[in-house]
């Protein structure tokens, strides 16, 4: 099963639209996980229409319409791997311990908020932040992640760098 992870799309405040390479990845993914800060409902509608399966949450920049449509935490078991998606996990210091304590029944936690890509593992929990495909902030590139899951195992976690917007 091919998964696409994204967060912090911030359309239309940080970009007019989602980048074409990201949308191409959506089209071939079996599931799309979005860790919040959509900003507008049109992006949610677009991803719902293009995704085979969309698992998303609201973020701190998402107003009442998105909060009505999206939970704070979303969970799904995909190909035998237990996922949770949340927007914010707090500061980097102590993140693994806090998240392992908050999500003891999860194999992979996808989160956003910082726009900083993250891939770490603590006892029984892998934490993944795909960065942002539209707002790199202090990072050298805008990014998203892909991975595959099969028979209860995560494989091929890849951070994709997007070309600069013209």
UniProtKB/TrEMBL annotation:
Its cofactor is a divalent metal cation. Its EC number is 3.1.4.-. InterPro entries: Calcineurin-like_PHP_lpxH, Metallo-depent_PP-like, PdiEstase_YfcE_CS, Phosphodiesterase_MJ0936/Vps29. It is an enzyme of class 3 (hydrolase). Residues 1-151 form the Calcineurin-like phosphoesterase domain. One of its GO terms (molecular function) is metal ion binding. Keywords: Hydrolase, Metal-binding. Belongs to the metallophosphoesterase superfamily. YfcE family. This is Phosphoesterase. The lineage of its organism: Bacteria, Bacillati, Actinomycetota, Actinomycetes, Kitasatosporales.
